[in-house]
Design goal:
single chain, alpha+beta, 9-stranded antiparallel beta sheet, 15 strands
């Protein structure tokens, strides 16, 4: 799976961009690095409206890197083009790499369309030059979709730092209750576990994390570019993350959200609602 049009396919969590995208070239830009990027001597900073924290293994020496990503989105918003998604790069910052691990905070990026294809949520970064006078031209990308994932030596986790932010890609049971009909709800648990539901709401789509590839591809086609939220049993259950990774490897289903509290968190919320109403 490639994270972007010009990204290599060898690692779907951390990869190198092989050349500038066509839309950049058409706008007379030789590099993907934001024109308004701060110098490497700038102290680390994150966008003020950050909603998620990304932790990913990228290797290399301790250093600060420049990162940028597409802007965050609302659940019902359409998938924009790459130039629209990045805008004037408000989703940009400088983050630390320590012992080979990059940790950054940002508004959860949105997927975007480029050359007729929807690409997964991702964050680009560049390293500083040795003399600290600028940024290296080599551009990298790391995943920016929810869950806990691993590919070879690359370990990746996204966690929520602001559940009150309606544009966060990690949702609580109460938010899913409010926005139920705006999502396609996907149950990643094995077949024996019935799906959660909301009275008078749309039925959840049951796609077991270990389903045959044919089932995964059919689910991807059903989801398309629609916003969907995946859940499993609880925060320590990895079925949802495993399904998200499999869906990311299909042609569609890039507009993903995740409910880590899962079926248990949903049941607790419903019990609390019942007690309040009685």
């Amino acid at each position: 799976m490639a994270l972007c049009l010009t990204c290599s396919k060898s690692n779907g969590l951390h990869s190198k961009s092989t050349k500038p995208a066509r839309w950049l070239v058409e706008n007379n830009r030789r590099s993907a690095i934001p024109p308004n990027a701060p110098p490497p001597t700038t102290k680390p900073f994150y966008p003020s409206n950050s909603s998620v924290r990304i932790r990913v293994t990228i290797g290399g020496p301790d250093r600060n890197v420049l990162f940028w990503a597409a802007q965050s989105r609302s659940v019902s918003s359409a998938i924009p083009s790459a130039p629209q998604a990045y805008g004037r790069y408000p989703n940009m910052g400088i983050a630390k790499v320590r012992k080979g691990v990059l940790v950054l905070s940002c508004p959860a990026p949105r997927p975007y369309k480029e050359e007729g294809k929807t690409w997964p949520c991702h964050v680009h970064y560049v390293n500083p030059t040795k003399d600290m006078t600028g940024w290296e031209p080599k551009v990298f990308a790391v995943a920016a979709f929810p869950g806990h994932h691993k590919h070879g030596d690359t370990e990746y986790t996204m966690t929520c730092i602001d559940h009150t932010n309606p544009k966060c890609s990690i949702v609580t049971p109460s938010r899913l209750w409010s926005d139920w009909n705006r999502f396609i709800v996907v149950n990643a648990l094995p077949e024996k576990y019935p799906s959660i539901c909301k009275p008078n709401g749309k039925m959840a789509l049951h796609v077991p994390y270990d389903a045959p590839n044919k089932v995964i591809k059919e689910a991807s086609k059903t989801i398309g570019d629609h916003a969907y939220v995946v859940y499993c049993m609880h925060a320590k259950c990895h079925a949802a993350s495993m399904l998200i990774q499999r869906l990311m490897n299909t042609k569609s289903a890039k507009n993903v959200y995740y409910m880590p509290n899962g079926q248990i968190g949903w049941s607790r919320m419903r019990n609390q609602m019942t007690k309040k109403s009685s």
